[in-house]
Structure formats: C-alpha cells, structure tokens
Design goal:
CATH superfamily: MFS general substrate transporter like domains
Largest sheet: none
Number of strands: 0
CATH architecture: Up-down Bundle
Oligomer: single chain
Shape: globular
Number of helices: 17
Structural class: mainly alpha
C-alpha cells in the first residue's frame, strides 16, 4: 500500500484539506508546549535545588522523571494510537500533561514533584508520536517530513520560552514553574475539538507486532542516531548553564540560563532549516553529515575549558543534533509500510528517549562524582562514531 493510499484511508480528502491548517497550527502549539514542559526544570534549577535541598544527582532525577515515562510510553503509545485513534490518544495525552504538572504544586516535596513529572511524561510521550502520525496522514508524503521538522522546531521554540520566561517569574512563587505548562493545555483542548477528528476513526487497525519492527536493522540504527540527536540535545539543554558555570566561575547556573535559550534557538533553526534541506539533499546524507559534526563537537568539549570555545562547541553540537530531525523520520518511513509508521516512529523515539534519560542522569552523576562533565562527552563522542559507521553501511540505498 502506498503512502497516498494510507493518506486516503484516514478520511475523505476534502475533509483533510479543510482541517489541514488547523492541524498544523495545533501541532506547532503542541510542540511549543512540549518544549516548555521538558525544560521548565533546568531553567529554574537553582530555585528548585534550594527548595528541595537537592544536589545535582537528586535534581537530575527530577529532570529525568519526565524523560523516563516519556521514553517508556513510546511503544505502548504508538500501539494505542494505531488501535484507538488519534483523537483518543491526544485527549489522554493532554489530560496526563495537565494533571502531571498540577501534582508538584500540592507540596514542596521532591518525591511528589518526581511523581508529577512521571505522569506528565506519559502525556508528552503519547502526544509526540500521535502528532507525528497526524502530520504524516494529513499532508502529502513530499511535505510530511518538512512539517514534522517544523513540529520539532516548535519544540525548540518552547524550550527557549522556558529559559526566557520561567527564571523571570519564579520569584513570584515556585508553583508557577509547574502551573505554566498546565495552563497551556487549556487552549489545546479547545483547538482539538476543531480538527475534524472523530471518536471512532476509520484509520483504526490492528497494531503491527513489535517483533516485526524490532527485526528492522535500520530502526535500531535510527534509534541510536536519534538518541545522539534528541537525547544529546536535551542533555545539553539541561546542563549547559551548569557546564558554563564550571568555566565561568563568577556566574551561577541560573544567571547563565540564557545559554539554554540560545542553544534551543540554534536547535530550532536547525530543525526548521533541516526541513527545507530535505527538499534538496538526500536524507541519508543529512544524517551522515550531522554525525560527523557531533564527533568533532563532543571531542572538543572533552578537553576544552575556555568559556567562548565551550559555548561555540555546544552551539555547533546543538545544530548537529537538530538538522537531522526530519531526515531520521524520512528514512524510517522508507524502511517500513504505512500500517507500521506509528509503531516504528515510537520504537525509534523509545530508543532516543532512553538515550536522553541515560545521558541526563550520566551527566548529573559525572558532575557530582568527578567535578566536571568531560567524561560524559567522551561517551557521547564514542557513540557518535559508532552511529556514523553503522549508518554509512546501512543507508547507502535509501
């Protein structure tokens, strides 16, 4: 079955065209919301470390609590979306995000906050894969990768807003750090009702067996590449203020929160730009180029202590982790059938988010026990070499 056949099966073409702009607007607003949720903690890290009397290792649990559930729900979320439809999946995801960000406000407890973040992560995980499927089935195949890149760029924009807005409002009350993401869910609930999605969608079908997806070699390689892209990006965004504070001793991590916003700005430009690049450059070539870029950037961050050099290398790494967003999912769509798109997307995202969880925890622990982040960059550089070699040998015909 061709991509256009799957596109036609979802709904009548005229209905899809009627709601296409609203669906794109919803997807972009969802991307912004997800970006804020992912980085509302790092953008107020000093305030929360003081509130919870926590060290870097403890606060990394708060950061990674959302990442754990976001990662673990990917594959079940993809199967849920295939079986029960996009509308039900989006309603469930928004409900989890809304409730999850209200829970930490109950009491200033690290355990309660981690619990809330875990619930919110279930919502972010389901929403991400569902929005990716919504875009794939709403727009022609030629443009789907580009709009998915725009969705990724919106995520980066939301991350920028987190670094710009939350540090300035945290002094009004730590509760606002969590309430802000919950409030953003309200307009999304309203817009969702206007997208032309039905409670019983015609695209519902039996879920593709996970074993079939796991047998696709390219899926594993793409998962590793995405782990070094999305995973490393989230790790850098979480820790870049602390990384710069290590080499700029006169400043605190919270005072350097602007660096996280700058990083996510470069990331957003990279993701959006990567969507346009796909119209002219092979997806495999985009992926290979970004892996080489990451090897160089992470290698430099292993050894340098100069503040300007560190910042430049972090921004280069951010660009390298972002330009390939659309390319990764374009390749994924070419190694499987339409009926397994949501499942393979979720599998790749699962591996990527596990990378984000592991890398974020690793950097926090490395900082606590070794006093700097250098060893973490050794690991990222080594995995980048492996991903480049594996991708080069597997994507030649794609």
């Amino acid at each position: 079955m061709s991509r256009l056949d799957g596109f036609s099966m979802m709904k009548d073409t005229s209905i899809i065209k009627k709601h296409a702009k609203r669906r794109l607007s919803f997807s972009l607003l969802m991307g912004v919301t997800l970006g804020i949720i992912f980085l509302n903690i790092p953008s107020a890290i000093d305030t929360l470390m003081s509130l919870y009397a926590a060290g870097y290792g403890d606060i990394s649990l708060l950061i990674s609590g959302l990442l754990w559930s976001h990662a673990l729900i990917q594959i079940p979320g993809g199967i849920f979306t295939d079986r029960f439809g996009i509308l039900k999946a989006l309603l469930l995801s928004l409900a989890c995000i809304f409730v999850g960000n209200l829970v930490p406000v109950i009491t200033p407890s690290l355990i309660v906050a981690v619990t809330g973040r875990f619930i919110a992560g279930i919502g972010t995980g389901i929403s991400f894969i569902t929005v990716m499927k919504l875009i794939a089935l709403t727009f022609p195949p030629r443009h789907a990768g580009m709009y998915q890149s725009f969705f990724g760029g919106a995520f980066s924009i939301g991350s920028i807003l987190a670094y710009l807005l939350i540090p300035k409002t945290a002094h009004l009350g730590w509760q606002l750090i969590y309430l802000f993401p919950s409030l953003l869910c309200l307009p999304l609930f309203v817009i969702l009702a206007t997208l032309g999605l039905q409670w019983s969608d015609s695209e519902q079908r039996e879920a593709i067996p996970l074993s079939a997806v796991m047998s696709i070699r390219e899926g594993w390689i793409l998962g590793l590449i995405h782990a070094l892209s999305f995973g490393a990006m989230m790790t850098l965004a979480s820790w870049v203020p602390s990384l710069l504070a290590d080499v700029m001793h006169e400043s605190t991590a919270e005072e350097l929160a602007w660096s996280g916003a700058l990083l996510m700005l470069i990331s957003g430009i990279g993701r959006i730009g990567g969507g346009f690049v796909l119209l002219r450059v092979r997806a495999a070539a985009v992926v290979h180029g970004t892996m080489i870029t990451l090897v160089v950037a992470f290698g430099g961050l292993m050894v340098t202590r100069d503040p300007v050099t560190v910042l430049c290398l972090v921004l280069i790494a951010s660009l390298g982790t972002s330009v390939n967003f659309g390319a990764i999912f374009t390749i994924a769509s070419r190694v499987t059938t339409d009926s397994s798109l949501a499942t393979i997307f979720s599998f790749i995202n699962f591996l990527a988010n596990m990378g984000a969880v592991i890398f974020t925890l690793m950097f926090g622990l490395v900082k606590d026990y070794m006093g700097n982040f250098s060893s973490g960059f050794v690991v990222l550089a080594a995995f980048s070499v492996v991903a480049f070699v594996a991708g080069w040998s597997s994507f030649k015909r794609i």
